[in-house]
Amino acid sequence: MSSQATLKIAAIANGDSNDKEGEILKLLNESNDNETIIYYINSLVKQQTLPIKGILVKFVENIKQKHTEAEQVQLYEEIVKIFTPPTAVVYLPLMKTILNLTQIYESKFQYDKAAEVLKSLQVDHLAQEFDSILQFQKFEVEINTRIAKNSLKVNDFESAEAYVSRIAPILPNLESNGIDDLLIDTYKTSVETMVKLGKWFEAASKLIVLDNEQFDIPLVKYTILSQHDPLKTRLINKLVESPHILPNIEHTPLLNIFQKIYSQKLIYHNEYIELLSYFLDTDDHSLSSDYITQALSKALVENNLIASSKIYNNTSIQGFTAILQLDESFVEELTADMIREERLDALIDDISKVIEFTGSNTSTQTKGVTTDPVLGQWHNHIVESCMVLDKIVDQISAQDPTFTDSFLLA
């Protein structure tokens, strides 16, 4: 059959017909089995005198109308196989084949296959098929976003991140022409990817670009979950400057916690529990409760460490842990991480289990490990008493916002 197909295609190519394209398409469309079609295609691509690209594009576009879905899948897969690696003449028909095959895979929930076949599409070689750079860039963003979405469906988060990162340099150019549905879809996919990877700052940074009120709540949530560093501080300031973000979270527990993080004030157990419940109830990424709990606990411990460093010289790990009622080893490990990453100026006395704040924002008393155990114990009692008093004032202020103002005026 292979030799017969070659002879038929060659006869048309070397003949006198004025409609060689039509005759080739007739051969392809009237073939009763996929094997014969593949023989014809293999023979066709060797005939450089024929309009190969145009013929193949029209044939691929007609496959849906001529074949069952099962036949389509088999034929598309064979075409992808014989056109890989592609030559310039088959870039466009290969693209159309892959897009058609991807659509079938996605409809059958075969997201892993959809992602893999899209990855075989060498997008860079298709630029010449578009009328403008902008059109090509939109196509590039669409394909990479689609790969990321399919990767997310099968929990391949690293692959999803790789493909959304690949198009990041292109997005500012598209944004300059306005935020359309494609960009919103791309940013939402990027956000979901970062959320699944626990990269909360990156997730928030994607949403703030959109400046869309419908994303204000998740934007604040991801900002709260971001690790404490100068980038988070700048992000928080941007949120405060927005005319709509804080008003749109007034009806949620987010506002109180956000304001405390902004002011670097201590957050207490009851506030943590209320916020955790809100996070669990409003999760729209199918995250596990353990995943959310771990992320929120980490963020609030970091905030409380920074808040404590502003007002105390040192604190016992036991006393500090009681604020949020978390596991001591968890808190100690987070503290050590912040110190090691130079996000907290402090030392940990492993013997007395005391966190010594050493930064310039603490009081001017002698830094380092307390040498007098009695004074150290007394200091810890004072610290814990101050924390309790701070909590009482917060609770009263929540009931009567004018309480602290009247107290100060008195």
TrEMBL record:
It is found in: Cytoplasm; Nucleus. Keywords: Cytoplasm, Nucleus, Signalosome. The keyword Lipid metabolism does not apply. It comes from the Eukaryota. Residues 196-362 form the PCI domain. InterPro entries: PCI_dom, PSMD12-CSN4-like_N, PSMD12/CSN4, WH-like_DNA-bd_sf, WH_DNA-bd_sf. SUPFAM superfamilies: Winged helix' DNA-binding domain. Gene3D superfamilies: Winged helix-like DNA-binding domain superfamily/Winged helix DNA-binding domain. This is COP9 signalosome complex subunit 4. The keyword Nucleus applies. GO terms for cellular component: COP9 signalosome; cytosol; proteasome regulatory particle, lid subcomplex. Belongs to the CSN4 family.
